[in-house]
Specification:
This protein is an alpha/beta fold and 382 residues long. The chain has 12 helices and 13 strands. The chain has a 7-stranded mixed beta sheet with strand order 7-8-9-10-11-13-12, with helices on both faces. A 6-stranded mixed beta sheet has the order 3-2-4-1-5-6. α9 crosses α10.
């Protein structure tokens, strides 16, 4: 009998930034790395003979909890990938909810008829996951193997081994990050001992009910979309955000120069309409993200001149999606660093930035005294 521990990757950027990352390559978040450390501790006394992973970074990084401490070789298998999402790759969930609500509902309920341009189908993923696990088991008779994969892919495999029809896949809850399924494979039969066990994480139950975090109700509450902020037509919207952001940062309006900020925003919009964006929750404006695609390009850095959330939408887990949009935009350009400025007296903003991997690298002149220059590394690495 072969024992296989099938593990979902730790929290990744797509999970945190609320974006469709299927075959799109993203990194583990800081929380994801903590989850992987907990996973390593969980298995520290378990003997493994082999470790397999999907070829996507978030799964390979998670596999490091198993193969690195044991000096094993990581076997990479693209058949363990997440379901391919085609033209939906790296699109914010909020945008898909707004533009393709019915199709997104089909996706979230694992409708076997779901497909978009360039995507896979759930029945196809069921087949490749089942075949991949059986091949791995056949290659390691009588041994113990760790396999790291992805939420929907694992769900597809489990539906086969639990004897469910494709149209009944939604009965299986999506595994939590680093949730573990234990499989026993013998004589061509796959027995599911347990699944979605994340007891190595604090305050976690082994088999929680399916979460609405990826369902339509959850997305209506917390998934943003973005559209270009039209300048000069929407200048008052931009200036109102700038004024509120200045007051929140400095506690005073001294030194504020709205026309100078507006001029810079119009110059950025002239670079590309997607440089200055309005963030929306449904149809409600909640923030502004301004990027300057030319500044700091020689340093392989992506500059964010303005990052703003409206007061009533702060501390709701939404601001990180603006950050994620900037990360994904600049990474696609080959930039290695995300760079912005923060008023040293703005403790709230500094806590937010540092909690997401930013650190101070210097100082720059600002409207009142100096501003802290902060950076976050965004290059792809294991």
């Amino acid at each position: 009998m072969t024992t296989i521990y099938l593990i979902r990757h730790g929290q990744a950027e797509g999970n945190l930034y609320r974006r469709c990352h299927s075959w799109h390559n993203g990194l583990l978040t800081l929380k994801g790395r903590e989850q992987v450390k907990a996973l390593e501790k969980r298995f520290e006394d378990v003997r493994f003979d082999a470790v397999y992973s999907s070829d996507l970074y978030r799964a390979m990084s998670t596999a490091g909890a198993i193969y690195r401490p044991r000096g094993l070789t990581l076997h990479v298998d693209p058949n363990l990938r997440e379901i391919g999402a085609g033209v939906w790759e790296d699109v914010p969930w909020g945008q898909l909810l707004h533009d393709h609500r019915d199709s997104l509902t089909d996706f979230l309920t694992c409708n076997p008829g779901w497909q978009v341009e360039g995507s896979e189908t759930f029945p196809a993923v069921r087949q490749r996951m089942d075949q991949a696990i059986r091949r791995i088991a056949a290659a390691h008779p009588g041994q113990t193997v760790a396999v790291t994969s992805h939420g929907c892919a694992i769900k597809c495999g489990l539906s086969v081994w639990l004897g469910l029809n494709p149209e009944d896949m939604d009965q299986i809850p999506l595994s939590n990050n680093t949730g573990v399924a234990k499989l026993e494979v013998e004589n061509g039969q796959v027995n599911v001992v347990y699944y979605n066990d994340d007891s190595h994480l604090k305050n976690a139950s082994p088999l929680p009910k399916a979460s609405t975090a990826y369902g339509i109700p959850g997305m209506e509450r917390n998934a943003l979309r973005f559209r270009p902020l039209l300048l000069p037509e929407e200048r008052e919207t931009y200036l109102a955000a700038r004024k509120d952001g200045w007051q929140a940062s400095h506690g005073t309006m001294d030194g504020f120069n709205g026309e100078k900020f507006l001029e810079a925003a119009e110059q950025n919009s002239a670079q590309n309409e997607n440089c200055v964006l309005l963030a929306l929750l449904g149809d409600t404006p909640v923030g502004v993200l301004q990027m300057d695609w030319e500044q700091d390009a020689q340093d392989q850095a992506g500059r964010v001149p303005f990052f703003y959330m409206a007061p009533e939408f702060r501390s709701k887990g939404l601001g990180v999606q603006l950050l994620g949009h900037a990360v994904c935009t600049y990474r696609a350009m080959g930039r290695q660093v995300l760079r912005l400025r923060c008023a040293p007296e703005n403790d709230r903003a500094k806590r937010f930035y540092t909690s997401h991997g930013f650190y101070k690298v210097g100082e720059e002149p600002g409207g009142i005294g100096h501003l802290d220059t902060m950076e976050k590394y965004i290059g792809l690495e294991l």
